[in-house]
Amino acid sequence: MKIVDAKVIVCSPDRNFATLKLTTDSGLTGLGDATLNGRELAVVAYLQEHVCPLLIGRDAHRIEDTWQYLYKGAYWRRGPVTMSAIAAVDTALWDIKAKSADMPLYQLLGGRSREGVMVYGHASGNDIPQVSDAVGAYLGEGYLAVRVQCAIPGLGSAYGVGKDAKFYEPAGRGLPLESEWSSERYLRFIPEVLGAVRSKFGFDFHMLHDVHHRLTPIEAAHLAKRLEEVELFWLEDPVVAELQEGFRLVRQHTTTPIATGEVFNSIWDCQQLIQEQLIDFIRASVVHTGGITHLRRIAQLAELYHVRMGCHGATDLSPVCLAAAIHFGISVHNFGIQEYMPHSELTDEVFPHTYRFAGGHLYPGEDPGLGVDLDEDLADRYPYDPAYLPISRKLDGTVHNW
C-alpha cells in the first residue's frame, strides 16, 4: 500500500491547527496532528518542503522504517519542529494501518489495559471563592481529578487562569502578551488556595497543580514539602527541565509526586529523570514527541522505573492528537492520567470524532483508525490567524519562564 498524496491543512476554528493528511493508492487516508502552538508555520514548512516529498511512493505499512528514515535521515535530530513533523507522519500512518486492519487503533496497540482513560479538568479563578466554585462544577460533572490554578494577589495575570471557565487558551492574536511574575507572592499564596479546596471538598478526588517551570529547585522543594498535607496527585513542572539535576534536590526534600515533560521532544530528554526515579509522571505528548511510535518507547522505559504516563492534552493539540492519546492511554499498561480540555464546538465541527467523555473518563470510538475526520471545506473557512504565547517577566522586568 503506497502513499500517493501528502498535504498539510492549516486552519483556525477558534485556534490554529496544522494537520497532515496522507492518502494511499488503496484510497485509505490518515491524519496526524502537526500543531506547535505559536510556531505552527515552522512545522508546516518543514513538512511541505522537506518531508512530504519523501513520503510519496513509500509503503504506508512500514511505520517503524519511516520513523527512522525521517529521524536519522535528517541528520539534524530532535527539536520541537522536527519531532512534531515526524509525529504527524507517524500518527497518520498508524491511522491508516488501523483502518487497513478494520479495527480501532487501540486494538492494534495491544487492546485495552483499562476500560476508560481517567482525565483531569482545569479549575481556575481570580480568587479562592471562584476557584472553589470551579472545582465544585467539575466534580458535579463527574470528574475524578481536577487541576487547580488561581490568580496571585498583586499580579495582573496568572498562568492557567482564563477568561472562560471551560476554555483556557493562552495564545493571543498579535504580538505576545507580557505578564508579570513574583515567585515570592506565588509561594506565599498558592498553599492557601490548595488548602482551602481540600478543606471544602475533602480528599475523595485527585487534585493537581501546575507550577509551569517557574521556580528554582530550592523554591520548588520548599513548596512541594508544604503541599504534602494536601496530597496532590502531582505537582507539575516545578522547575525547568534543562537542568535535570534540579529535580534531585526537589526529590530529596518531599514525597509530593512530580510530573514533567510536556515540552520534551524525545526519550533522551527524560532518560535521566526516569532512570534515576526523579519524577513520577512523564507528560510527553503524541505530537511533540515524535508520534505514537516514539511515545511507546518512552512508556516502556518509564514502566521499568515505576514512572507513569500523563500526556499533555491542552487545546493547543487538535482532536486528532487527543484521539491518539486516548488510544495510547487505554492500551499502555503504566498509564496515569490524561489532561483534558474540551475543544470548542467549532473545533469539534471541523474535526468530527467518535471519542467521548463520561464519568471522569475518555473513551475511544470503535470506528477503524483514530476515529477522527477533518472537514476540509469547513476548515477552509477559517484560515490561519497568527497568535503567540505570552512572555513572562519578573517584577523588575527580567524575562522569566512563562
Main features:
402 residues, 10-stranded mixed β-sheet, TIM Barrel, 2 domains, 18 strands, Enolase-like, domain 1
Please give the CATH architecture of the largest domain.
Alpha-Beta Barrel
Low-confidence stretches: none
Sum up the overall morphology in one term: globular
Could you tell me the strand content as a percent range?
Answer: 15-25%
Oligomeric state of the chains present here:
single chain
Major sheet description: 10 strands, mixed
Q: How many alpha or pi helices?
A: 13
**DSSP helix fraction:** 25-40%
Radius of gyration: 20 Å
CATH topology of the largest domain: TIM Barrel
CATH level 1 name of the largest domain: Alpha Beta
CATH superfamily of the largest domain, by name, is Enolase-like C-terminal domain
Domains (count) = 2
Distance between the termini: 45 Å
Describe the structure.
This protein has 402 residues and is of the alpha/beta class. It has two domains: 3-104, Enolase-like, N-terminal domain (Enolase-like, domain 1, 2-Layer Sandwich), CATH 3.30.390.10; 108-367, Alpha-Beta Barrel (TIM Barrel). It is built from 13 helices and 18 strands. The protein has helices at residues 40-55, 63-72, 80-100, 105-108, 128-140, 183-201, 217-226, 246-253, 267-275, 291-304, 319-331, 345-350, 376-379; strands at 3-11, 17-24, 29-33, 117-125, 145-150, 172-173, 178-181, 206-210, 234-236, 258-260, 281-282, 308-309, 338-339, 356-358, 361-363, 387-388, 391-394, 399-400. The strands form four sheets. Strands 4, 5, 8, 9, 10, 11, 12, 13, 14 and 15 form a ten-stranded mixed β-sheet that branches. A three-stranded antiparallel β-sheet has the order 1-2-3. It has a three-stranded mixed β-sheet with strand order 7-17-18. Strand 8, helix 7 (217-226) and strand 9 (234-236) form a beta-alpha-beta unit. Helix 2 (63-72) runs antiparallel to helix 3 (80-100). The longest helix has 21 residues, at 80-100.
